[in-house]
Each structure stands twice: as C-alpha cells, then as structure tokens.
Amino acid sequence: MIRAVHIDDEPAAREHLALLLADLAADVRLVGQYADITAGQQALEEHRPDLLFLDVEMPGGDGFELLRRMGRWDFHVVFTTAFQRYAIQAIRFSALDYLLKPVQADELRAALDRATKDKAPADAGHQEQVVDNLSADPSALRVLVSHGGRQHAILPADILYCRAENNYTEIHLQGGRRFLCARTLKDYDDMLQDRGFLRVHRSFLVNRAAVENAPSQGPLRLTDGTAVEVSVRRRAQVIEALRA
Fold first, then answer.
1. Using the 8-state DSSP alphabet, how is residue 9 labeled?
2. pLDDT tens by residue, 142-164
3. What is the average pLDDT across 107-120?
4. What is the DSSP letter of 121?
5. What does the alpha-carbon distance between residue 87 and residue 89 come to, in Å, rounded to a whole number?
C-alpha cells in the first residue's frame, strides 16, 4: 500500500485528486490533505508517506519552499501545477515529476506507475542540487542527470549536442565528457528548446551556439569537430533557424 499526502490550497483541487485516487488506485491510501506548506510539513513529519502530491503556487509559501525547508526527504514527489512556464521548466530540469491541473486520470495513473518504480529516495547530494535548482534564477537552471551511480548538474551552455540511444539519451559536453541518461531525446528537446537548442534529426538535438558551420547540404559541423546529420525534412527549417 502506497501512503500519500496532498498539499494544495484549492479545496476543489483536493477533492478532485481524492476522487481520482479512490477511483483509480486501490493501492494508494490518502492519509491527509492540507491547504498550506506549514501544516503539510508537520503532516509529512508525522505520517512519513511514500508519495507527496505538492501544489506549486500557494499563498504563504510555494511547493518549492517546502522542499527548501525540509532539505532532505524520503518520499516520491509529484508536483501539481497550472501551466506556469518557469515552474515547469525548473521541475523538468530537476528530473522531478509533475501533473498539470486539472489532473487527468491517465496522467495520474502514469505518475503512480513511475512512483511505484522509483521507491528508493534520491541521495542527499541530488536532493541538495534539486533544492538549488528550484531556488535558482531561470538563467541559472542546471540539468540534473544520473550517470554511473552519481548525480551531475550540467549547465545547458556546456552541452554541445544530445543523441538518441533508443529510450536513452547520450549528452555530449564541451571538453569531451558525455553522459548516458535514462530519459528520451524528446524529454530533452522539450526541456531545452527555449535554451537555444534545435532538433535537427530524430536522433540529434544540438546547441545552436555550438554550430560552427551549417552548409546547405551535408552535416552540421560543431565547434569540437563533430559532424551532426540533418534530416531532409528538417533541413530548410534548421538552416533558417541557424541563420536567423
């Protein structure tokens, strides 16, 4: 049985999630719902849940502030938020889970499945990086990745390109370092498209600042000498974007 806590200042949102969980998830017991992060933090310390549904935008302190106060946590976090661009970007960069309001049944079920698979709490170093990221100015956000049993915080500007490896992504950095990450290229495309990255092929996402030469035919040439293939159907759009 998964024990869950829900923190959200909107009564309608609390009722909606409770009804969805009752209908969808016999394996989840909602042990408490709270309207602010002060009461919510007390409940987390008392109930020690496996799962926290946490609203981002609340009066008296947002969901990010709760994690900053706690510093360390041993439950899976799923943020719930209305579309708020920076909040979602910070959550994605931090490799955390989120649901858009109003929460949809299929998306909730997928989040519960992910929470079930991810029962081990993140290490203290990763959680410290998460708190730093959620506190950061948008321009200072780092991509948090797990590689080789360690957590790494990467500045988007240090990424040359990303390459798809089935359901994984290989991130290539300046200086020759690279990380194989358990997220799809689409995840990184969604995350980085507002940071100067361009999808040039189904298998490649490039940092525009790293493109040294963009010929009308043939591959792109990056600053480290890497040749990156451009798909035929994307070429005109890619060349136009790079020359803008």
1. S
2. 999 988 778 899 999 999 999 99
3. 84
4. P
5. 5
- The residue type found at 134 is L
- Tens of pLDDT, residue by residue over 47-76, are 999 999 999 999 888 999 999 999 889 999
Q: Is the separation of the CB atoms in 78 and 51 below 8 Å?
A: yes
Domain spans in the chain, listed from the N-terminal domain onward: 2-135, 154-243
Residues 6+ apart with CB under 8 A from 119: 50, 76
SS3 track for 175-211: HHCEEEECCCHHHHHHHHHHHCEEEEECCEEEEHHHE
**Fold entry, domain 154-243:** OB fold (Dihydrolipoamide Acetyltransferase, E2P) (2.40.50)
Q: What is the pLDDT confidence band of residue 120, given thresholds at 50, 70 and 90?
A: low
C-alpha gyration radius of the chain: 20
Give the CATH fold of the 2-135 domain: Rossmann fold (3.40.50)
Burial level of 73, CB count in 10 A (0-12/13-18/19+)?
middle
Q: Using the predicted structure, report yes or no on whether residue 106 has a pLDDT greater than 80.
A: yes
Residue labelled with tokens 């790293």: 210
Give the Å distances, CA to CA, from 92 to 47, 85, 107, 143, 233. 27, 11, 16, 8, 28
Q: What are the structure tokens assigned to 193, written together?
A: 């498209």
